Amino acid sequence: MHVDLIDLRLFLKIIESGNITAGASRSHLSLASASARVRALEASLGIALLERGRRGVKPTPAGKALAQHARLIQQQVERMQFDLADYAKGFKGQVRLLCNTSALTEYLPELLADFLVKNPAIDIELEEHPSLRILHAVRQGAADIGIISDAVDASGLQTQPFRDDPLTLIMPSDHPLSALCSVRFSETLDYEYVGLPINSAMGIYLEEQALHSGKRLRIRVRAEGFDGVMRMVGRGTGLGIVAQASIDRWPAPHDFKSIPLSDPWAQRSLVLCATDFSTLPGYAKALLTALLDTPMSSPDN
Predict the structure, then answer these.
(1) Is the pLDDT assigned to residue 300 strictly greater than 70?
(2) Which of 74, 155, 201, 270 allows an S-S link to 130, with CB 3.0 to 4.6 Å?
(3) Which residues pair with 57 in a beta bridge?
(4) Dihedral over alpha carbons 70, 73, 75, 80 (to 10 degrees)
(5) With 0-12 CB in 10 A as exposed, 13-18 as middle and 19+ as buried, what is 107?
């Protein structure tokens, strides 16, 4: 099967005008050339794409399907041309960085801001995803660099330490659990929670851990981020789980109590991952260097 962009553009013009002659004219092709291209396209696909009549043509069901794909392809080509125009103007690169909730909210904002100020020719496409989804994207080449929890299996990828990122339970000061020195996550699931957005990486992760315990989180309300969780917990709304880094930067004194979670999955670290750090484009390596400019920057492989 062979289909080129000229054929697809021509086919769309024919569909829009309802006439091969008009479609050929709009495509700056002769009628003979346009007709030959349509016949060759039908032969290549092995199916009729147009119903021909005395008053013009209309697409067959297969032709309608092709037109839908052709429009999507044309939009993608236009987007590609727009993006590549930046390179002609001296633009050097865009890094696709995927990360989890803690990295996005606690560790990256100032770091990435400083990097972008120092590197005006580099852009960063930053997205939040659960660690397992990040692993899949990096393995499939859909992301340059990922930041994931070390609790997931990153076999087949190269990794570098990024930050320690333990998770901590917070609660109102008069909560029944407040006298404990530490607690297992499963022991908290009979109480109500202030949750994170249902589609956030951390929100998904905590829901999964609750299901592993045979229960579900009892969510009274969802806050937009760790700051929102701490503010609402401090007002007595319920329990919350946040990154310890969020508590460390919260203005003292706290209007909530924090207790370590004793579950191994809560004593986690964040790691950088890529298929091969040495083969990253130069602009991605520049970002990697900035991300590794920390006390925990020694490689593990």
Answers:
(1) no
(2) 201
(3) 52
(4) -160
(5) buried
d(CA 88, CA 114) in angstroms, rounded, equals 26
What integer is the mean pLDDT of 275-301?
A: 76
Dihedral, CA of residue 124, residue 125, residue 129 and residue 131, to nearest 10: -50
pTM of the model: 0.62
Q: Which residues of 217-252 are buried (b: 16+ CB within 10 A; e: fewer)?
A: bebeebbebbebbbbbbbeebbbbbbbbbbbeebee
Segment 212-239 shows an average pLDDT of 93
pLDDT per position as a tens digit, 42-78: 998 899 999 998 889 999 999 999 999 988 888 788 7
Q: Which domain holds residue 233?
A: 167-266
Structural domain count, the chain: 3
